[in-house]
Design brief:
This protein is an alpha/beta fold and about 325 residues long. It contains 17 helices and 9 strands.
Length: about 325
């Protein structure tokens, strides 16, 4: 099923330029989006709580900073660029009570809306504008007159503005129309994004490189070689995959590597597919969201334990040594 795709020529930048935008949060995404919007001649203010360490940074970069509830009352479009697990707490106290019919609230990820952490009043528009990359890349690509792919979705229509036109215009102001803006739904974006993170990009990749490293170490191979073969060279392959696709990757590796990959895929593929199906089901039925929100309510005990333990692993200890020349160059 092909998603509708929009480019700069299809989108009216004037829609978002005619509105007052308020961004809640000034982390990597908040900063990048605010700067891109401002450079696209969009009126932007920042909303932060008193005492936030980001206040001075935002002011230094020339933005007017308001308390969140004040920002909400003075904006046409409010973007909630906070960590997913904070949406319910912040929006219920500082945003929803001050929303007026016709305003639009936007998200960069569908988690809080799709999993019913946020319930919006009728007449208030709810949009998704999701850059497909981190804040640093969003800003860097914009400055190079390029952009990242963006996803947009409409969960609820505004009684005053055309929510889709606003979402498209916002994405164009961030550089999305230079690459392409794809229209999807909150559900599809949220579930596919979580699945990609867990099964492939973060969880899956980390599991494979760590298990590969540990397998070689246990078999008596030097840690340095295990790190090079299972961790260091991932970037080389990932770059080929990113720019040239699976077929292009195949064309740039040796026959030995290609044949070995095909042979290894057969036994590994069936096991991975079954495990991935279980991961997707837990995302779809809401059990992952429930577990994650419980983790947050307990002040992240598992995350804290895992982060501490990771520093003591051989893969991190040898990796820190081998990465030193790269970090020194930076």
């Amino acid at each position: 099923m092909a998603l509708p795709v929009y480019y700069d020529k299809d989108i009216d930048l004037g829609v978002i330029q005619s509105l007052q935008v308020g961004i809640i949060g000034y982390g990597a995404q908040g900063e990048a989006q605010a700067l891109n919007l401002r450079d696209s001649k969009v009126k932007v203010r920042i909303g932060l709580y008193q005492g936030s360490l980001s206040v001075s940074k935002a002011k230094k970069e020339g933005f007017e900073v308001l308390e969140v509830k004040e920002l909400v009352q003075q904006s046409d479009v409010i973007m909630a660029l906070l960590p997913d697990e904070l949406h319910k707490e912040v929006l219920e106290k500082e945003v929803i009570p001050f929303l007026k019919e016709g305003q639009i609230i936007g998200f960069a990820h569908g988690f809080s809306v799709h999993f019913n952490q946020v319930v919006l009043p009728k007449g208030v528009g709810a949009i998704l504008v999701a850059p497909k990359g981190p804040g640093s890349a969003l800003r860097e690509e914009y400055l190079k007159n390029r952009g990242l792919y963006h996803l947009i979705a409409i969960e609820q229509e505004s009684s005053k503005y055309n929510a889709k036109a606003v979402a498209l215009s916002y994405a164009k102001a961030m550089g999305g129309g230079r690459m392409g803006v794809l229209e999807t739904s909150f559900k599809e974006e949220c579930e596919s994004d979580l699945f990609g993170e867990q099964a492939v990009l973060c969880g899956g990749l980390e599991a494979i490189v760590r298990m590969g490293f540990e397998t070689l170490i246990k078999a008596g191979y030097p840690e340095e070689l295990a790190y090079f073969e299972c961790v260091h060279e991932v970037k080389l392959v990932a770059d080929l995959l990113h720019y040239k696709g699976v077929e292009g990757l195949r064309k740039h590796i040796s026959n030995t590597a290609e044949f070995g990959a095909i042979k290894a895929r057969e036994p590994m593929g069936n096991l991975l597919k079954k495990r991935m199906q279980k991961i997707l089901k837990k995302i779809q039925n809401g059990s992952f969201a429930k577990d994650f929100l419980l983790e947050k309510s307990l002040n992240y005990p598992r995350l804290n334990t895992e982060r501490k333990a990771l520093k003591e692993t051989k893969i991190e200890q040898i990796g820190e040594i081998l990465r030193a020349p790269f970090n020194h160059k930076k």
